[in-house]
From TrEMBL:
Residues 18-212 form the YjeF N-terminal domain. Its cofactor is K(+); Mg(2+). It comes from Novosphingobium jiangmenense. This is Bifunctional NAD(P)H-hydrate repair enzyme. Belongs to the NnrD/CARKD family. In the N-terminal section; belongs to the NnrE/AIBP family. NCBIfam families: yjeF_cterm, yjeF_nterm. Its EC number is 4.2.1.136, 5.1.99.6. Catalyzes the epimerization of the S- and R-forms of NAD(P)HX, a damaged form of NAD(P)H that is a result of enzymatic or heat-dependent hydration. This is a prerequisite for the S-specific NAD(P)H-hydrate dehydratase to allow the repair of both epimers of NAD(P)HX.
Amino acid sequence: MPRSSDAVLSQVLTVAQMRAAEEDLIAAGTSVDALMQAAGRGAGEWVRRIAGGGSVTVLCGPGNNGGDGWVIAEYLREHGNSVQVVQAREPATEAARNAKALYGGAVVSADSVTTRDVFVDCLFGSGLTRALPDDLYDMLCGLAGRHRHRIAIDVPSGIDSDSGVALNADLPHWTLTVALGAWKHAHFAMPACAAMGATRLVDIGVTAVPGAARVLHRPRIPAPAADAHKYRRGMLGLVAGEMPGAGLLSATAALRAGAGYLKMAAKLAPAGVPPELVVTTDVDAMLADARVSALLVGPGLGRSDEAARLLARTLHAGRPTVIDADALVLLRPAMLTGAPCVLTPHEGETAALERAFGLSGQGLRRERAGALAEATRAVVVLKGPDTVIAGPGGEMVVSPRASSWLSVAGTGDVLAGTIASRLATNGQALRAAEEGLWLHGEAARLCGPAFTAGELAHAVQAALKECLE
Ligand SMILES: NC(=O)C1=CN([C@@H]2O[C@H](COP(=O)(O)OP(=O)(O)OC[C@H]3O[C@@H](n4cnc5c(N)ncnc54)[C@H](O)[C@@H]3O)[C@@H](O)[C@H]2O)[C@@H](O)CC1
Ligand SMILES: [K+]
């Protein structure tokens, strides 16, 4: 893989993977000191952009994160900023000691620091394994509170890098978090990601790590071919249940996410069906229609025995299918045929699926999504403020934080419709899940505050426009 490709810079690493990647670079001839210089100077440039000509305080801890801090401080000093270092602990690594020796500026006590412009947290990074002791916690929070802007280097102190769990209560909120070398899971996991402010990545030459997770990015979606035909563009069949109105939101989004033809099978046609949506009462005919390239089942399905039978019939058709909402609660292992499927559970539906598929439900969200994907052989989109996508082959995609205004009724129906539309178009479950999730997040961003699910569904079209090749 070419080193500079987007794929390398979008990988998300565990602490163990990051250490292995650094060891590869060192084995290839780079020194730890050179990596620290590259990381610290790259981060220093971000600090300079925030600080302008302003004053900066850098808090340095004992490990290599502290070492980065000494490099950042020297970089700022060289560039004319008023900079001072608070040394929380003596450097305990050789690289950190070397970085400190190269710093020619002021070192002050935490108590002496008055209000300044920018605080830089280099107390601990990815090496933190336990809660901050009281003296360091007080120092971190006290200093953070006395600065106008707060920048965390690599991982904010007090955060577990692999999980995003806060090891101390009431940690500071950051203006900016600068990841070094590669993204870490904490940058995308709650609660840590909510307090990180903007996030930026400094490239230090890390290469591709096999099996690494990656960040969801804007997909490239082709416009229909010159000779496109409505069926070949993707025909989506929506299986409506006891409350067919819920499926209308999915349909509204699906009509704007690229599929060429939408048909809804419902016992009773709901009110307010847009003229573009074809409604049939003959679900078996729709399921047997060879032109249907994907199905969506779940929104408004209900949880009755009849709904369970309808779900089983739908899955028996063996088409690529998005399974959402009530269908996730009714799903049983015997219903799956091996056709490409996308499951879109939130937390409660995930717990129901774990029970149905004999899983423990233990572990981090991404681990639970991975276990569910393996057990179902489906792509799992585990929804929440930190949505993750897991594929049956061990693929893992984490999503940057989306608008918190998405926490409104009906947005799940919109997501399912968007993914289903992409599945009808490209037939690939993982790709459809990624494209649909990105379009959904971008549609929310475009809507701004306090939108309705219907407005979100309409905005999917504007999001799609940004993806066209
Ligand atoms: N290794 C490398 O090649 C590079 C490392 N980099 C930096 O190095 C960081 C990781 O360095 P380290 O592994 O030294 O980790 P940290 O700098 O996070 O510090 C870990 C050290 O603190 C101790 N420690 C952990 N939790 C503690 C606690 N609660 N109270 C007191 N002491 C505690 C550990 O025993 C360890 O000695 C990254 O976050 C990044 O900032 C970058 O400079 C890029 C290059
Ligand atoms: K830090």
